[in-house]
Amino acid sequence: MKVTILGCGGSAGVPMIGGDDGSGIWGCCDPSEPRNRRTRASIFLEMDNGENILIDTGPDLRHQLLSNGISAFRWLFFTHAHADHVAGLDDVRGINRVIKEPIKAFARRETLDDIRNKFGYVFQPWTPPSFFRAVVEANCLPDYGHFNMAGYRFTIFGQIHGKVSSAGLRCGRFAYSTDVVELSDQALEALAGVETWVVGCFQREPHVAHAWLERIVEWQAIIKPQRIILTHMGPDMDWQWMEKNLPSGIEAAWDGMKLSLPQAERDMEEI
C-alpha cells in the first residue's frame, strides 16, 4: 500500500489568508521553506489490488489531485463534515468523467447526513451517460467497527474533536487520525499494534479541538507506533523547528509526502 499526503495543513492552510501585503500570515513558519506551505488535510491510498481511495475532499482538492498526478479512484472516505474536509466535493465530477461511474463514499451516518445537507445534489442517482455534476453513492458506517472498502479490511473508530466528533481509520498496520484532541479507550484499542500513524497536531501549545505536541508524545507512549507523522499543522509548526526538536519516532508531514507500507489485509469475504 502507498500513501500520499495530499495536504497537511489546518483549516486555514499555511500561509493563512491575510498579512500586511496580502501575501499571507505565516506565523512561526519560514516562508522560504517549501515544506511550510500546506494545503488542507487529505490523504490518498493506492492499494495493492490496483484500487485507489481518497480520504476527504477539502477545498484544495483540484490542486492536490493535479499536483500529484491523480486522475482516477472509485472509493472515498470522509472523516467528518467540516468545510476543510468536504468543501471540494464538487471537484470529484472530473473523476466521475474519467472512471465513467459514481464514486462510493463511506462515512458515519451523522457525517453523511451533514454532507447531504450541503451537497444534496451529489447524492442524487446518476442519469447516464454524462456527468454534469459530481455523483457519489453513500455507504453508511457505524461509529466503530470493521468494514470492507476496495476489497480490504478497514477499521473505523470515533475520535473527540472538541465539541464534535471525527472518525479515525485503520488499514493493516497503518492508521490516520486527523482532527482529534482526545482518544477513548475504544479508539486506543483500535490503534493497538499500529506501526505507522498519521495524526493531527495543530500546534505546540494546548488547543480545545486539536491535539498538540505534548499530547502526541503522551499517545506515543501508550500506542508505541514505530513511526508517527504529524499532519493538520497550523502556522505554529515550523518545519526547521520540528526537524530540530521533535522527539525520536515523530516527524512532520509535507504536502506530497509519499509512504510505502506493507501490504494490507484483503477482506476474504470479498475475494
Topology (SSEs and partners):
Blueprint: E1 2-7, E2 42-46, E3 52-55, H1 61-67, E4 75-77, H2 83-86, H3 93-99, E5 103-108, H4 109-119, E6 136-141, E7 145-149, E8 152-161, E9 164-171, E10 174-177, H5 185-191, E11 196-200, H6 213-223, E12 227-231, H7 239-245, E13 250-252, E14 258-260
Parallel strand pairs: 3-4, 4-5, 5-6, 10-11, 11-12, 12-13
Antiparallel strand pairs: 1-2, 1-14, 2-3, 7-8, 8-9, 9-10
Describe it for me?
- With 271 residues, the protein is of the alpha/beta class.
- The chain has one domain: Ribonuclease Z/Hydroxyacylglutathione hydrolase-like (Metallo-beta-lactamase, Chain A), CATH 3.60.15.
- The chain has 7 helices and 14 strands.
- The strands form 2 sheets. Strands 6-5-4-3-2-1-14 form a 7-stranded mixed beta sheet. Strands 7-8-9-10-11-12-13 form a 7-stranded mixed beta sheet.
- The longest helix is centred in the middle third of the chain and has 11 residues.
- It is globular.
- It holds the Pfam family Lactamase_B_2.
- This is MBL fold metallo-hydrolase.
Attribute tags:
single chain; 271 residues; alpha/beta; 7-stranded mixed sheet; 7 helices; Metallo-B-lactamas; MBL fold metallo-hydrolase; RibonucZ/Hydroxyglut_hydro
Short structural description:
The chain is an alpha/beta fold and 271 residues long. It is 20% helix and 27% strand.
Helix content: 10-25%
End-to-end CA span: 18 Å
Question: What sort of overall outline do the alpha carbons produce when their principal axes are compared?
Answer: globular
CATH architecture: 4-Layer Sandwich
The overall number of domains is 1
Poorly predicted regions are: none
- Beta-strand proportion: 25-35%
Q: From the helix content, strand content and strand pairing, which structural class follows? A: alpha/beta
CATH homology group = Ribonuclease Z/Hydroxyacylglutathione hydrolase-like
Helix count, per DSSP? 7
Mean pLDDT: 96
Main sheet summary? 7 strands, mixed
Spatial order of strands in the largest sheet? 6-5-4-3-2-1-14
What pattern of helices and strands is seen along the backbone?
A: EEEHEHHEHEEEEEHEHEHEE
